């Protein structure tokens, strides 16, 4: 599922330092990832369960 | 004869039950279908088929969750329902919710027939036998007997033994209730594949979270409003990358089709009293008769503006004939509709969602056919982009969803199913806040919405960069909800006492900057639209966010950044 966004990515702002290609600021807010039970239904659940049971990442799973 | 599949979906409701299956359509029985074409069959279609083969004079579509005993004979469904009036002590109704409950927790529902007694601390029924003796059945035994009939009628129809079934349970069932239900189903010879929540089943039936009927996932947030016979259950559920999450539930077990029936019963009882001076409000038998008629009257009012209610020999040998129109019924029931809205408001508050954030409201349960309900829902869901849907038969949607799930897991190893639905697998962290980028206009564009189960991977693409642009910049933000109060402008025809009206809605704004990336070295002098930038955002279960940005058409450059992680 690739989302196609129809706006332009701008050039870097004037404040951007030319030396690096990326800057890390902050992680997502700590306690944000609250655990929940997902419903084990639907056509996509089994791919998720398979990845989790075999401890695979998305790209490992695709191979 | 086309081959038959043998997995089914069962919705065992407190009032009515339904069975559905996915089947190969035999020989053009359904108009316009090709022979042997595989498609989903709804209960209605199944029954229509059944009727074509064995014409069914009363044309009943729902199976009443009632079982009646007469000596060694057992009757279920509508035949049994008719016994509530004639032989109440031989008839068990409204027993579904008692499974797995102790006697002290037992709540007796309106319209239940044989009295509930206590046996070993559990609710049970004492049924008189023909020879003056009685026999006692626990709720679990009654359930198992009832489900055995359901199974055999499905098998009789399909001409094959059932090899697997997915059954639905309400959101408020405890684990113990589910286990007892499983035991009863197994006793009934039903090979249980899985239990799923009624709301999730309804969402499956409506293909929530999928693009049309395709299997491509899409993010959606829906409210499932299930107004059945004895309860109103409301669930907010979202689907993210094909994963179903229940965000909140609320229910009122004193609100359902029976509530409407009782209003009509009271209305007609007072009419009868006016005409005859006879008060039937303490007369059990008369009430049971009136209740059965009132339910028919109520159903008629769903399709017509006026409906009769007739009971032969209601009391003292006197007949009753009355009529009511839809408007009068809606006035009688106005408080009931408000209570429905309260439950919906409650669930939205619990989920911390604004009505505007709801994509669809799915109406399920037989009573959601009452036309006024959809109209009233617009008091809450004012946005036109929120669809209110009733396009699947509401008392069949849950069974239909169970059948879909059954077909998805049919053929799986039972151990695999058990391992996959274990909380070790299903318990998973979710994002609490949306993650996104800022577009050229400065608006926040959500890439990973809140309440998305982790890990998640979201690839997205920008079709173009500006002409001559050699570098692109992407800032990744975490967003936050903000309550926006807007004062509506004063209408031109406002009178003196005009008070400005404000509307409150939620808006997502960029809040915390997570990372910035720049991809450079794009081919000089690119024409707009020639370059294609792909960005993949991944959030893993340890809350580590990874962004990979690359140019796809001319290859080469890639920028990657990793943020956080435990
Ligand atoms: N056309 C209709 N108009 C109005 N009410 C209807 C109509 N059809 C069915 N009903 C009502 O729907 C109710 C049954 O709903 P449903 O089949 O969803 O029951 P259920 O799931 O067993 O309910 P619960 O488990 O909440 O008791 C009954 O009260 C019935 O009178
Ligand atoms: Mg129901």
UniProtKB/TrEMBL annotation, chain B:
Molecular functions per Gene Ontology: ATP binding; ATP-dependent protein folding chaperone
Name of this protein: Hsp70 protein-domain-containing protein
Cellular component terms per the entry's GO annotation: cytosol; nucleus
Residues that span the membrane, as ranges: none
Pfam families: HSP70
Domain of life of the native organism: Eukaryota
Classification via SUPFAM superfamilies: Actin-like ATPase domain, Heat shock protein 70kD (HSP70), peptide-binding domain
Keywords tagged on the record: ATP-binding, Nucleotide-binding
Record PROSITE patterns: HSP70_3 (PS01036)
Lineage, top ranks: Eukaryota, Fungi, Fungi incertae sedis, Mucoromycota, Mucoromycotina
Family: Belongs to the heat shock protein 70 family.
Species this protein is from: Jimgerdemannia flammicorona
InterPro entries in the cross-refs: ATPase_NBD, Heat_shock_70_CS, HSP70_peptide-bd_sf, Hsp_70_fam
């Amino acid at each position: 599922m690739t989302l196609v966004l129809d706006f332009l990515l701008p050039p870097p702002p004037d404040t951007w330092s030319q030396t690096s290609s990326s800057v890390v600021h902050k992680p997502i807010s700590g306690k944000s990832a609250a655990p929940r039970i997902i419903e084990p239904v639907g056509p996509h659940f089994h791919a998720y369960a398979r990845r989790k049971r075999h401890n695979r990442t998305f790209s490992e799973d695709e191979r | 004869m086309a081959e038959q599949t043998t997995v089914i979906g069962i919705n065992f409701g407190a009032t009515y039950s339904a069975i559905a299956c996915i089947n190969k359509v035999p020989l053009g029985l359904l108009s316009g279908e090709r022979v042997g074409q595989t498609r989903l069959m709804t209960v209605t279609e199944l029954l229509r088929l059944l009727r074509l083969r064995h014409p069914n004079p009363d044309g009943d579509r729902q199976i009443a969750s009632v079982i009646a005993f007469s000596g060694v004979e057992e009757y279920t469904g509508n035949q049994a329902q008719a016994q509530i009036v004639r032989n109440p002590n031989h008839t068990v109704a409204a027993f579904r919710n008692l499974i797995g409950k102790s006697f002290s927790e037992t709540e007796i529902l309106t319209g239940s027939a044989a009295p509930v007694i206590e046996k070993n601390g559990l609710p049970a029924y004492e049924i008189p036998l023909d020879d003056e003796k009685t026999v006692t059945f626990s709720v679990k035994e009654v359930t198992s007997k009832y489900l055995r009939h359901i199974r055999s009628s499905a098998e009789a129809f399909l001409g094959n033994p059932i090899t697997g079934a997915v059954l639905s349970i309400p959101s408020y069932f405890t684990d113990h209730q589910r286990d007892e239900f499983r035991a009863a189903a197994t006793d009934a010879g039903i090979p249980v594949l899985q239990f799923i929540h009624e709301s999730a089943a309804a969402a499956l039936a409506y293909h929530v979270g999928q693009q049309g009927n395709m299997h491509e996932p899409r993010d959606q947030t829906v409210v499932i409003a299930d107004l059945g016979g004895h309860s109103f259950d409301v669930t907010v559920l979202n689907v993210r990358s094909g994963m179903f999450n229940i965000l909140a539930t609320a229910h009122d077990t004193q609100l359902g089709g029976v509530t409407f029936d009782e209003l009509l019963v009271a209305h007609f009882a007072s009419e009868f009293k006016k005409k005859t001076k006879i008060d039937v409000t303490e007369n059990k038998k008369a009430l049971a008769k009136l209740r059965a008629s009132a339910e028919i009257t109520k159903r008629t009012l769903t399709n017509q503006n006026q409906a009769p209610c007739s009971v032969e020999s209601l009391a003292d040998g006197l007949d009753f004939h009355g009529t009511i129109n839809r408007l009068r019924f809606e006035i009688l029931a106005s408080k009931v509709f408000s209570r429905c809205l309260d439950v919906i408001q409650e669930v939205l508050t619990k989920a911390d969602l604004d009505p505007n954030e709801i994509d669809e409201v799915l109406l399920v349960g037989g009573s959601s056919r009452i036309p006024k309900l959809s109209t009233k829902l617009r008091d809450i869901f004012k946005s036109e982009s929120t669809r209110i849907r009733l396009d699947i038969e509401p008392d069949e949607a849950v069974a239909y969803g169970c059948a879909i799930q059954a077909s998805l897991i049919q053929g799986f190893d039972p151990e695999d199913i058990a391992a996959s639905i274990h909380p070790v697998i299903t318990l998973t962290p979710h994002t609490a806040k949306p993650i996104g980028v800022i577009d050229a206009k400065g608006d926040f564009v959500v890439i990973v919405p809140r309440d998305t189960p982790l890990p998640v991977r979201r690839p997205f693409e920008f079709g173009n960069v500006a002409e001559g642009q050699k570098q692109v910049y992407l800032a990744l933000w975490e967003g936050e909800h903000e309550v926006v109060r807007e004062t509506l402008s004063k209408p031109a025809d406002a009178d003196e006492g005009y008070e400005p009206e404000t509307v409150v809605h939620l808006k997502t704004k960029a809040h915390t900057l997570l990372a910035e990336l720049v991809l450079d070295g794009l081919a000089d002098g690119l024409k707009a639209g020639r370059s294609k930038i792909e960005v993949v955002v991944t959030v893993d279960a340890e809350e580590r966010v990874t962004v990979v940005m690359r140019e796809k058409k001319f290859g080469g450059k890639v920028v990657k950044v990793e943020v956080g992680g435990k």
